[in-house]
């Protein structure tokens, strides 16, 4: 099949849509029967299977890099009883009034920084540093990670502030079940050091920093940023979504919360959460 036959004509689609709208208006909004037309493949991008395979490869690599014990030493976050009740009530109310409430923010103010001692003691064995676990890598770099677990969450994401990574360093966010996003590089998605990561299903997310060497020890001491908040999304917003690598792009939550280009090689940028302590609404709900 040649390129002209395979290419989806958005201009033609827009013209047809405009014509239908005008026709409906001139006819006094008389109802008309809809008719489906055969779809055409869109060229120039990855397929769903390719996307899932890329994420599976990235997830496997991040799991292999992650310092041993990261998941076991996860930082625990929990909504208070009143916060849980408020969230459940707002979710129920929003079903009738909209937009849909899917969660709320929870501050953790986790400061990640390193010093000369951390650089001097950098070795193969994981050790506590920067409020997470740190180890050296054979390429002269290092990997650091911290897990955040928000009890009873259907999905989570985190708010990063003050990020300013050296060229050889990359930040990632993933869950234990097969979803992985990144790299977030330099000053992050918005170029100002502050952004929300993509959303992962489940109650646990891992923030992982990977430096690819050879100047890992020298760069380590100047890296500093904050994991300021956790986005806790209730189970009502993701309970029906599948987990694991096959869930990529399939969850209603994923489709609504990932809308703009985000990373150099990665998925889409999530819309920002509402201010701390307020409920999170589903975009377009």
Defining key terms:
285 residues; alpha+beta; 2 domains; seven-stranded mixed β-sheet; 8 helices; globular; disordered N terminus; disordered C terminus
Calculate Rg over CA atoms: 22 Å
> What coarse outline follows from CA principal-axis ratios?
globular
Helix content: 25-40%
Largest sheet: 7 strands, mixed
DSSP summary: helix tally? 8
Number of structural units classed as domains:
2
Number of strands: 15
Give me the secondary-structure category: alpha+beta
Low-confidence spans: pLDDT under 50, at least 5 residues?
Answer: 1-36, 237-279, 281-285
Strand proportion, as a percent range, falls in 25-35%
| SSE series | HHHEHEHEEEEEEEEEHEHHEEE
Cα(first) to Cα(last) distance is 39 Å
Mean pLDDT: 77
Descriptive overview:
The structure is a single chain. The protein has 285 residues and is an alpha+beta fold. The chain folds into 2 domains: 1-44, no CATH class; 50-281, no CATH class. It has 8 helices and 15 strands. It has helices spanning 3-6, 10-26, 48-65, 81-97, 116-120, 216-220, 235-238, 252-257; strands at residues 75-77, 101-113, 127-129, 132-136, 142-150, 155-161, 169-174, 180-184, 195-196, 200-201, 204-211, 224-233, 258-261, 268-270, 279-281. The strands form 3 sheets. Strands 1, 3, 4, 5, 7, 8 and 11 form a 7-stranded mixed beta sheet that branches. Strands 2, 6, 9, 10, 12 and 15 form a 6-stranded antiparallel beta sheet that branches. A hairpin with a 6-residue loop joins strand 13 and strand 14 (268-270). The model is unreliable at 1-36, 237-279 and 281-285 (pLDDT under 50).
């Amino acid at each position: 099949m040649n390129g002209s036959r395979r290419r989806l004509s958005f201009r033609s689609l827009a013209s047809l849509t405009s014509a239908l709208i005008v026709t409906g208006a001139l006819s006094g909004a008389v109802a008309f029967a809809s008719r489906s037309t055969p779809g055409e493949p869109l060229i120039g991008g990855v397929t769903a299977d390719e996307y899932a395979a890329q994420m599976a490869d990235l997830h496997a690599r991040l799991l292999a890099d992650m310092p041993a014990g990261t998941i076991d030493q996860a930082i625990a976050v929990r909504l208070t009883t009143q916060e849980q009740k408020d969230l459940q009530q707002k979710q129920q109310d929003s079903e009738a009034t909209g937009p849909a409430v899917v969660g709320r923010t929870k501050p953790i103010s986790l400061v990640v920084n390193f010093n000369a001692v951390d650089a001097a003691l950098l070795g193969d064995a994981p050790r506590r540093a920067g409020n997470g676990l740190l180890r050296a890598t054979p390429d002269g770099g290092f990997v650091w990670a911290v897990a955040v677990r928000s009890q009873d969450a259907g999905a989570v994401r985190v708010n990063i502030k003050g990020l300013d990574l050296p060229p050889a360093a990359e930040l990632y966010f993933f869950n234990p079940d097969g979803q992985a996003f990144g790299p977030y590089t330099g000053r992050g998605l918005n170029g100002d050091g502050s952004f929300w990561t993509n959303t992962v299903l489940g109650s646990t997310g891992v923030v992982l920093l990977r430096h690819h060497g050879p100047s890992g020890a020298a760069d380590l001491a100047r890296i500093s940023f904050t994991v300021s908040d956790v986005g806790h999304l209730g189970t009502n917003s993701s309970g029906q979504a599948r987990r694991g690598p096959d869930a990529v792009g399939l969850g209603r939550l994923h489709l609504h919360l990932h809308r703009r280009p985000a990373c150099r090689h990665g998925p889409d940028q999530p819309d920002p959460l509402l201010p701390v302590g307020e409920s999170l609404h589903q975009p377009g709900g």
